[in-house]
Amino acid sequence: MFPGYLNESILKRAQEIGQLDVRLHNIRDYASGKHRVTDEPPYGGGGGMVLKIEPLSAALEHILAQTTAGEADLGTKPEPTPVILLTPQGRPFSQKIAQELSAHERLVLVCGRYEGFDERVRQHLVTDEISIGDYVLTGGELAAMVLVDAVTRLLEGTLGAEGAAESDSHATGLLEGPHYTRPASFRGWDVPEVLRSGHDANIQQWRRQQALRRTWQRRPEMLLTADLDEADKWFLGKLAEEQDEGAD
Q1: Bridge partners of 130?
Q2: Beta strand segments in 187-229, E
Q3: How far is residue 105's CA from residue 107's CA, in Å, rounded to a whole number?
Q4: Range of 234's domain?
Q5: Rounded distance, CA 11 to CA 202, Å?
Q6: Catalytic site positions
Q7: How many Cβ atoms sit within 10 Å of the Cβ of residue 120?
Q8: What is the domain-level CATH number for residue 205?
Q9: Domain annotation covers residue 170
Q10: pLDDT of res. 150
Q11: Structural element, H or E, at residue 89
């Protein structure tokens, strides 16, 4: 499931420049017995199958015993590696968590299937649980790819342009404002004049105000925690006045 997505676009570039190294591990390879069984029916009955703790424990022990290239070069004691279980019961994934995870040398992502994991996996083998949304997927693979993508975008050099990730939606605590490109006019729909003016200060002000406006309109709760200066607060006041006038 992973190669098609991991070997394209930004993720491919990140691997080529040495900023990303993804290693896939099949849990079945760590199961014992002739049939390498990784799941069993749950104690107490019920539908579905539950992933066993033994192969997961063996897989994690093997993976965590490996040393990354960066650790080998430094000759230092490796930092504790976050072991993240992808589950709808985890803490909701966000840009802030992506930034937090991007600071680590290595992450281990545990993808589930079927009914879930033996509870002892949660209790003893993982250090974190993350959910990408309040819904249920067939497995944790898609959630893992979401984490890999979001975290990789924050690594130096992966986007090409310096600081490109810093202006993305949620990166600044606001939604990103609108973008335009050529032609300047299409069916009477014109690109805002300020963007064609060449006046950098005015353009930056317009972009900031449009980000504030879009956040006000679509995700107003984000403004409660956004880092706002006096100019931002003044503009939000103007938006409030516009709203009040519209209500009248």
Answers
A1: 91
A2: 189-190
A3: 7
A4: 185-247
A5: 34
A6: 88, 115, 153, 168
A7: 12
A8: 1.10.1270.20
A9: no
A10: 97
A11: strand 83-92
Question: What pLDDT, on a 0 to 100 scale, did the predictor assign at position 70?
Answer: 54
Q: Are residues 31 and 147 in the same domain?
A: yes
> What's the one-letter identity of residue 184?
A
- Amino acid present at 92: P
CA distance 36 to 54: 11
Residue 71 confidence (pLDDT): 55
Q: Residue with structure tokens 């709808």?
A: 88
Query: How much is the pLDDT for 172?
Result: 80
* Cα 211 to Cα 116: distance, rounded to the nearest angstrom: 40
* DSSP reduced 3-state for 39: strand
Q: Tokens standing for 100?
A: 């937090």
Map residue 46 onto helix, strand or coil: coil
CA–CA gap between residue 122 and residue 127 (Å, rounded)? 8
Whether 122 contacts 85, CB under 8 Å: yes
- For the chain, residues with pLDDT lower than 70 are 68-78, 161-171, 248
